[in-house]
Design a protein that fits this description.
- The chain is built from three helices and 24 strands.
- By secondary structure, the protein is α/β, with parallel strands linked by helices.
Length: 226
């Protein structure tokens, strides 16, 4: 990646990983944005602005020619990630694909704008990723997989060949999805799950083999179907 200036939406968690990667590739981070008013600056010398109001104030203060954008919001927040990518690009801040130097991306793979392939991850032959996808540390997306927009494949997760995943799906750390399985949009695959059959849109699946579950946040318990 050629040296250039970046702004990053997000200031903690996934942002810390992305900031290290961009800095290692010679990029200069000139501004951070965060939707949480209680976020605190974590990168000395980089100004932190709050919400879209802060973003538009910053935007009005300077030219954005030559500046790129990145969205550092991970987990099951694909809809938010895609919306912010649209905001940045619509304001003249292109959001390029970001690939860690230790990652492997096949020449025949296609990655959508704003996608990120992190340390030790693999995107194999003829795989297609929509905009704003994250393939996290040591995750594997095998041949001919098709990922919709806003998908996050967690650390160490494995997508076997020809898997199809809808928009805004979150695949938890260490999960495995077997070949030719389809995952509906907005679904969540729990950490360590082994998915052997199709998952309907919006469902949460857990376990080995993975089963659809109803989550009860107040008790941190789940009830899974047979």
């Amino acid at each position: 990646m050629p040296e250039r200036e970046f702004v990053v939406w997000g200031s903690s968690g996934h942002a810390l990983v992305l900031l290290d990667l961009l800095a290692a590739q010679g990029a200069r981070i000139i501004a951070l944005f965060d939707n949480h008013q209680h976020a605190t600056p974590m990168q000395p010398g980089i100004p932190l602005h709050y919400g879209e109001t802060g973003f538009h104030s910053w935007l009005a203060s300077r030219s954005v020619v030559g500046i790129a954008g990145a969205v550092a919001i991970g987990g099951g927040r694909g809809t938010d990630r895609r919306r912010l990518l649209g905001l940045l690009s619509g304001c003249g801040l292109p959001c390029p694909v970001i690939v860690h130097p230790t990652a492997s991306v096949a020449a025949s793979a296609r990655l959508g704008d704003g996608s990120q392939v992190l340390m030790g991850a693999c995107v194999s032959s003829c795989a297609v990723l929509g905009i704003g996808c994250i393939v996290n540390t040591r995750a594997s997306v095998d041949h001919e997989c098709q990922l919709g927009a806003g998908v996050h494949v967690g650390p160490g997760a494995t997508l076997c060949g020809c898997v199809r995943i809808g928009d805004d799906v979150f695949v938890g750390a260490g999960a495995t999805i077997l070949p030719r399985v389809s995952i509906g949009h907005g679904a969540t695959i729990g950490a360590g799950a082994v998915v052997t059959r199709d998952v309907r849109p919006g469902a949460t699946v857990l376990g080995i083999p993975a089963r659809e579950c109803l989550l009860y946040p107040s008790t941190e318990q789940a009830h899974c179907n047979p």
